[in-house]
Amino acid sequence: MSAPAPSASTASLSYEQAGVNYDLIDPLKVAAQRAAAATAGHLAGHGFTEVPASRGESAYVVDVGPFYLASIVECLGSKALVADEMKALTGRSYYDGIAQDTIAMAVNDLITVGATPLVVQAYWAAGGSDWFGDAQRAQALVAGWKAACDRCGVAWGGGETPALAGIVESGRIDLAASCTGIINPKSRLSVGDQLGAGDAIVLLASSGIHANGLSLARKLTERLPQGYLTEVAPGLSYGEALLAPTVLYSPVTEALARAGVTVHYSANITGHGWRKLLRHPAELTYRIHTVPAVPPVLRFIQQHAGHDDREAYSTLNMGAGFALFVPREQAEQTVAIARAEGVEAVLAGQVEAGAKQLLIEPLGIRFASDDLQLR
Amino acid sequence: MSAPAPSASTASLSYEQAGVNYDLIDPLKVAAQRAAAATAGHLAGHGFTEVPASRGESAYVVDVGPFYLASIVECLGSKALVADEMKALTGRSYYDGIAQDTIAMAVNDLITVGATPLVVQAYWAAGGSDWFGDAQRAQALVAGWKAACDRCGVAWGGGETPALAGIVESGRIDLAASCTGIINPKSRLSVGDQLGAGDAIVLLASSGIHANGLSLARKLTERLPQGYLTEVAPGLSYGEALLAPTVLYSPVTEALARAGVTVHYSANITGHGWRKLLRHPAELTYRIHTVPAVPPVLRFIQQHAGHDDREAYSTLNMGAGFALFVPREQAEQTVAIARAEGVEAVLAGQVEAGAKQLLIEPLGIRFASDDLQLR
Prior knowledge:
Chains A, B: InterPro entries: PurM-like_C_dom, PurM-like_C_sf, PurM-like_N, PurM-like_N_sf, PurM_cligase. Chains A, B: Residues 197-356 form the PurM-like C-terminal domain. Chains A, B: GO terms for molecular function: ATP binding; phosphoribosylamine-glycine ligase activity; phosphoribosylformylglycinamidine cyclo-ligase activity. Two copies of one chain form a homodimer. Chain A is α+β, with helices and mostly antiparallel strands and 375 residues long. Chain A folds into two domains: 22-188, CATH 3.30.1330.10; 200-371, Phosphoribosyl-aminoimidazole Synthetase, Chain A, domain 2 (Alpha-Beta Complex), CATH 3.90.650.10. The first copy, chain A, has helices spanning 22-37, 79-90, 95-110, 135-152, 214-220, 238-242, 250-258, 296-305, 309-315, 331-340; strands at residues 49-50, 60-63, 68-75, 116-126, 155-160, 173-183, 200-205, 231-233, 236-237, 265-268, 284-288, 320-326, 345-353, 357-360, 365-368. In chain A, the strands form three sheets. In chain A, strands 10-12-7-13-11-14-15 form a seven-stranded mixed sheet. Chain A is globular and about 50 Å long. Chains A and B meet through α1, β3, β4, α4 and β5 of A and α1, β3, β4, α4 and β5 of B.
């Protein structure tokens, strides 16, 4: 990657400068999406059909008769690099949290369509056999993976632990998870056809940066005299704060289903920050009247990257890790159920008829339809 | 990786010298398998159960009531490195075949338990955004991925295309596929409880090395004066021959199911070569009376690596990519159905009562139970 180093520590640091060039990736993505869509007809040969609306969603859904089947594969991204740096600085292994992050990337996407996650598969591709020779780290990865499965009530089916010298860099690991679930009863399917004016927007709290925006966060250490050991709050280093594991939201969505709450739509707030609230293609206005508390590490990144609120909310989760769109009369119940599951939640706003836009009123921010290009 | 270079070109080249040290990976694998097995109880919370016998098999199976659900994630391994070298030498992109290889790794494992593959997800983790900027290569990857989905009758659900600079090496890509399928009717489940004395062993032909043994095959180029351009047969370079795409076997297993052939057990012959025929834990003798033709590239590797038949058959597929264990009276029909699907097949032997061992009689080779440690 040839991202130029910022010339001065006061310059604003963009996501592109941090090393991700979507102009190069997007043509492939579009070609792949078209080719993928053209394969849907194969399901008819088995007596099944896809749920076409799921094509643009976070997980792919197939109607297999008695219920829907949902599946996904998701990558952790570059967060493990922070764990590696912090291990060198502190001697601790953070791979228990990294394991949770990886599972969260898959599970939190899978549940957006209304699925109950059933099986997780592990994909741990190391830069060489010797990666697995660090017993402390390997055990942390295994223990954290199991704990996250326990928290989500999923079975860990198995997985792959290849040693990929020459593809994965020496001393590094490429972590991903695949997840399969079912939508049962079928009425739990939430791909947005029920979404409409009058729905309430409930935001579930994040624990920090989760696993998106790490390229930017890592790049930022070049501006910090103490790097990852710089304090973001008294006694809390930047590195420790970045490594707070991603919240697993499936216990909340499962509890909502048990309680009879109807989720009309949901969005996992990952890359693209709050613009993910505009995920559904419908022409609707999302009006936010209450924003959740911003975790110290995200405020710290915003300040040191020189981002205004608009740029920060367009890139980072800023305290909201998951959005639920529910009937207005079930909004308070939704908040209460989330809290009972140990996840802070806020009734943040409502869906209204009108142009497709997100209005974050307390901050005077407006994101319009063309601020998010996902499909 | 610290594999020593061979001191002379006549020395035998072992798999460990080629850079894979299972002694480092295996303790993690065992710990992960134990932790994974301990999560099975979570399925009861959803009203389901795992199929315990699938824990040691190539795909994980859950009983979801009307049918079984099978899922898997599989890595391509290092075969893409050969495509990269050959691109530099010939100007051609081989990523259409590489895509097929990647899907084959997942599909050919999934079908061993009797599953019909339904959905494939793509995992394409590049060393940087610029990987995707090579349009010829990117289009070959997309086209090959779709063609393999078409051949297997699976829907391409979506996937991930992360740019992982700092984790995946610059200019490289880490390719994997996840696959979800169902076993329907449930009588198609083949985890080995029907396997027994009297069953016939039908071997389906491979196209070459497939995607296992590539570390050894790549290492071998150091001994070849013309490297990948060395001819293994008139007009066929070593590199071209290595890149023959892995055969997709699901059209055969689906055709067998339609024809009413009962598959008692099956094995995808990947790493560990023919020792995979010993995969099932039962005490049974597998007697081979006919071996399939050996693809020129595998004979070439055997000769140049200085391997005797025993070592070659213990590492490479030697012409047999997939093994089907079927009732004796359906053996000829099995061979005919495979051929009708364009896959060469041979009635190779039978299962007998006796000590757990594989006897390859035409070659005078015996593999015993302790030659394969998978569980």
